[in-house]
Every structure is written in structure tokens, then in C-alpha cells.
Design a protein that fits this description.
Structural class: alpha/beta
Strand order of the largest sheet: 4-3-2-1-5
Largest sheet: 5 strands, mixed
Distance between the termini: 5 Å
Number of domains: 2
Shape: globular
Low-confidence stretches: none
Length: 135
């Protein structure tokens, strides 16, 4: 699974319109979110750092909910944008999340277990388990 890392608002117009999952590494305004949704109509998930999430308006959260786009808190630890514009969750981690979810493990336990092994945020882990994303 790949998340497109967007580190500046001037990258939004150049995004691939087929992007479904995006991590915003800058403090996005409501206009940035709207531009992102226009540029990527298939968007299903946006991840923002926890510190940015606290400063977002409730209006954009309601709008994202209406559009069916999930807003997650989390970071892309250790990712270097100069090497790759995508943050990748490896297949082994995806399979482990799927296996634990299928075995009936609670979301919190699943999240805690995976967080120890992979550098993923709890919201992203729960999103993967809930949506059953394939690689």
C-alpha cells in the first residue's frame, strides 16, 4: 500500500488524479483540502500529523465526512521525500494486519501489536484493518 506524501501546497496541482491515499506534511488550509479533493476525485483517505490535526477547522472535517474521505492522524516516520514521493507499507505488515483483524483481535490490541513492529500510526493501522485494503 502506498501513501502519496505531499510536503507543500504547490505540489497539489501536479498530483496524479488517481491518488486515493495522501499524507499532508504541511499545515493545510481549508482551500488546500478543497484543491486536493478537486485534483484527486478518487481520494478516500487523508493523513495529517497530530499537531496539524488539532488546528484544523471543524468545517473541513464535516466536509470530508460528507465526501466519504477519512481524516487520519499520523506521521510517516523516517520517510525521505527526496528518495521517493510515496510512503510504502510493506506487504508483510499488510498481511499481518489482515490476519490479526480476521482472527478477531480488537482494534486497539491490533494497533498496539503492529505499532511495536512497524512504524505506523494507530489510525493508519486501524484504517487498513477496517477497509481491508489489498496491496
Amino acid at each position: 500500500m502506498r501513501l502519496r506524501v505531499v510536503s507543500a501546497r504547490n505540489e497539489i496541482p501536479n498530483l496524479n488524479p488517481n491518488e486515493k491515499m495522501v499524507h499532508l506534511a504541511f499545515r493545510a488550509s481549508n482551500v488546500d483540502f478543497l484543491n486536493l479533493m478537486q485534483r484527486c476525485p478518487r481520494l478516500r483517505m487523508i493523513q495529517v500529523p497530530p499537531s496539524y490535526r488539532k488546528t484544523m477547522s471543524n468545517a473541513i472535517q464535516v466536509f470530508l465526512d460528507m465526501q466519504g474521505i477519512e481524516l487520519l492522524e499520523g506521521d510517516v516516520w523516517g520517510h525521505r521525500k527526496d528518495l521517493d514521493e510515496y510512503f510504502t507499507v510493506d506487504d508483510a505488515t499488510m498481511e499481518e494486519i489482515r490476519t490479526l483483524a480476521a482472527s478477531g483481535t480488537t482494534m486497539d490490541d491490533l494497533s498496539n501489536q503492529i505499532q511495536k513492529k512497524a512504524r505506523l500510526g494507530p489510525d493508519l493501522i486501524k484504517y487498513i484493518a477496517k477497509t481491508k485494503i489489498t496491496a
